Structure formats: structure tokens, C-alpha cells
């Protein structure tokens, strides 16, 4: 689904992404790991249109999407979440979800005067879909709670829910487990697996927690110094001497739960 060819993103003399080439297969849950400064989040930002590349190309389903802005990629079904959840804190969880789809009739002043029935019908449909999403994510009890008052893990679930309010094809998850307790992290993992298996979502996941990566991801791509270093199953990555010597450290051989960013 996604093909990245010789991608560069430089900040002055610093090469955050330095000739990375990789592919994310349709229907996969691909893990992206590597040390701090490896270029993972910058790579996400370039693919998702938040940053223009210095050079190189990004393709989605064979279409060159290099440099397209986030709103255009959103309409193509490419979405991303962030390390820190971005919710409308004073609005309810349900309202946060209902805000997601674009092109709503109520956005146009003319329709507020002459299209009230259409607006009301759309809102009923959006409310029903939002409630379905909240139920899927097992947080329906939070529907009327202000989004700013729920826990960090619940906010991550709500962010995942936003991707379900539109026709997402691929979702880039940036440290979805950051600051999340173990119980909620497994709830998030289960939701990702269900979205992948039941609704055909493709995911690419940056995450520290290797148990989380191991539960979800195959393949796992390793980045270091802005480049694609290795790829395989998590067990293959852990046993890869080049990976260990380059940046993970020999402790990974003996610590199955070693965290890698």
C-alpha cells in the first residue's frame, strides 16, 4: 500500500531521514522501531504530509503522494495519530468523534437557514456511528464525558476511534502506548487487531513496548540514523547481530521485554 523510495528529510546539516526506502503491505500491521533519533516520527510526518521531504518519493496504492498536505491524504484514507492525544477537551467523547467527517452540511451558513432537516439527519447518523465506535472500543460509558477529563489511555482509544469515523485505509500510530497502563494498552492492542482483521485496516506502528509490538506486528522494520537497517519478525530482529551491535545493545539478547523506540 505504501512505498517509500530513497526518502530524505534534512534540518540544516542534520539528516533526520537519510535515504530510507521501505514498503508497508496492504492488510499488514507493520512495526517501526529504532533508537531515539532514528528518524521514525520524522518519517511518519513526511509520509503523512506534515513535513515536505528534502528529496525522495512516497507512493500509496501506486499513486505518487509525495508532499500532499494532510487534508488531501485524509480524504485518500491515510491518517495518523500522535504521541500526545489531540482531543477537544471541553467537548464530549461522542462530540469529538462526530467532528471528524468533513463536508458536513452544518459547516455552511446557507444550510443553517435552508437545510436544517438535512443537518438534523446527518447529525443523527453521525451520532449513531459515534456510539457504534465507542461501543467497539469498549468506552461507550464515556460517551457524554468531557474528553479532557478521561485518562491518557482512554484518550488514545478515542484517537483510534477518530480513524473509524471515516474510511481509513492506513493508519500511522505514533507511540500509541505512551503513558498508558498495561490493561488499557492490551485493550488498544485488541482494538487494532480487530480493525485489521474485521475491517481491513492497514497499520504502521511506532512503539517502545516490545510485548505490544510482538502481539501486533509482522513485519518489524528497524531504523537507525535515518535509514532502513533491517526487517523481519520480532524474533528475527532480536537475533540480528547487525541490529544489536548497531544500536540496541547486547542486553536485548537476554531481555525479552527490552523497550525500543
Structural class: alpha/beta
CATH class of the largest domain reads Alpha Beta
Taking all Cα atoms into account, the compactness measure Rg is 19 Å
Helical segment tally?
Answer: 10
Give me the count of strands: 10
Going across the biggest sheet, name each strand in turn. 6-7-8-3-9-10
Can you tell me the CATH topology of the largest domain? Rossmann fold
Number of domains: 2
Determine the fraction of residues in helical runs and give it as a percent range. 25-40%
Through-space gap between termini: 24 Å
At the fourth CATH level, what is the homologous superfamily of the largest domain?
Answer: P-loop containing nucleotide triphosphate hydrolases
Biggest sheet descriptor: 6 strands, mixed
Pattern of helices and strands: EEEHEEHEHHHHEHEHEEHH
Tell me the overall shape: globular
What CATH architecture of the largest domain do you see? 3-Layer(aba) Sandwich
- Low-pLDDT parts are 250-261
InterPro entries: AAA+_ATPase, ABC_AA/LPS_Transport, ABC_transporter-like_ATP-bd, ABC_transporter-like_CS, BCA_ABC_TP_C, P-loop_NTPase
GO cellular component, one term: plasma membrane
Domain ABC transporter: 2-250
Keywords: ATP-binding, Hydrolase, Nucleotide-binding, Transport
